[in-house]
What we know:
The protein has 520 residues and is an alpha/beta fold. It has helices spanning 9-19, 34-42, 54-68, 78-95, 121-125, 138-153, 166-170, 190-201, 217-230, 259-265, 310-320, 346-356, 397-407, 419-422, 428-435, 450-458, 465-470, 480-486, 497-509; strands at residues 24-27, 47-50, 73-76, 99-105, 131-134, 159-165, 206-210, 233-235, 243-245, 271-275, 299-304, 361-366, 384-388, 413-418, 439-445, 490-494, 514-519. The strands form 3 sheets. The chain has a 7-stranded mixed sheet with strand order 9-13-12-14-15-17-16, sandwiched between helices. Strands 2-1-3-4-6-5 form a 6-stranded parallel sheet, with helices on both faces. The radius of gyration is 24 Å and the shape is globular. The mean pLDDT is 94. It holds the Pfam family TPP_enzyme_N. Keywords: Lyase, Thiamine pyrophosphate, Transferase.
Amino acid sequence: xxxxxxxxxxxxxxxxxxxxxxxxxxxxxxxxxxxxxxxxxxxxxxxxxxxxxxxxxxxxxxxxxxxxxxxxxxxxxxxxxxxxxxxxxxxxxxxxxxxxxxxxxxxxxxxxxxxxxxxxxxxxxxxxxxxxxxxxxxxxxxxxxxxxxxxxxxxxxxxxxxxxxxxxxxxxxxxxxxxxxxxxxxxxxxxxxxxxxxxxxxxxxxxxxxxxxxxxxxxxxxxxxxxxxxxxxxxxxxxxxxxxxxxxxxxxxxxxxxxxxxxxxxxxxxxxxxxxxxxxxxxxxxxxxxxxxxxxxxxxxxxxxxxxxxxxxxxxxxxxxxxxxxxxxxxxxxxxxxxxxxxxxxxxxxxxxxxxxxxxxxxxxxxxxxxxxxxxxxxxxxxxxxxxxxxxxxxxxxxxxxxxxxxxxxxxxxxxxxxxxxxxxxxxxxxxxxxxxxxxxxxxxxxxxxxxxxxxxxxxxxxxxxxxxxxxxxxxxxxxxxxxxxxxxxxxxxxxxxxxxxxxxxxxxxxxxxxxxxxx
Length: 520
């Protein structure tokens, strides 16, 4: 670009993002964003990844930041484009993922005329965002972008939405803004540490709930030391943004999805200590049953809020209870596991994953019903990171896998993906093919919304044909090998564990994406 030419707002936006370390943009642009698109063409340094649906774009930005430890940008088209991406922004909010969410909008002077795409864009963005702003002039765009990056990265992380009317992007007068200082991560108070220590010394049955960065290797080790020294139990929420797991790492159990199973598991607990986690709650309410999976009379204590330094809080608590030198549980040295044979079951898939998962794989799980054995059954798999659907809005799995693969080249991504939720964002496969991303998709094809059959029973309903038809996605059956092929991704079907193991080995050894339709 000729430096003598005045810079427009879009050019100052791109340059400011790059100056702030944001060098990846997941995009589905429209007319209002054309000046940003043109600026990306003129200014080198930004990797642009096209998604064919905004839910793919926002979910991919979530998966990218979970693995990269820094935000990507999105590029969405006006309020309706944002609306298409809201479900996975909700999931990103629940995961506390840093995302710089860029949304084009009507020109400032065009908006009062109520053109067809005019919407309450800021109103739609605000509930999923930690920070929302509409740029009002080209000269402010750079400063707005720098503030958005700072807000997204402020602990514990979140979605920062910057709305950009088209005229502030094409007008001259843009200024590149320097990065703002990172906001300090607050430490927990000495009182909070001492209160938690008193609870742990009381001898009462105590549960420590770990979430967020407390599930990384070092803080998790301190949590295990505390548990070993005090007899406390450790647990994490059902769904977590990222967990370090596998052979040689310390495991942590999860609150079960089923409310009845969760209440049974946590029966007798007298104290709950929260470390970056909310108080446990069942996924849904059921008639006549408590929404709390822990006893109603248990006391809840907060050691650290999500925005505080969780690792430092656990280290100080370990000191306070004399656990810094506590003997950690000896890591079990498992016997070598062979892939499962015969019929396809949840336990058999978990066994095969344990036997064949590549070293340092990234596992993305979007399966609750059939996948019930996957998490507990893979504690002795090769070291890996496990990413989950955090907000309950289905359709996150394939975009998360896409974004994680962009963020972590050289690591194989394995997506354990239910078929019903895969249909929400199957366009992700096209982007995986275009970018030649190393993703193995294990498509769990039971041809029904199996989890909803359980929910129907949970509310005491007696289903008839109409209800059951609403939960069935057969007639006609989805053909995932053909669907994948139509998106440019090779695939094959497995109906038994021997075939699955063969395909899984092959897929992980090759470059690029591959879909295994596992019929269950």
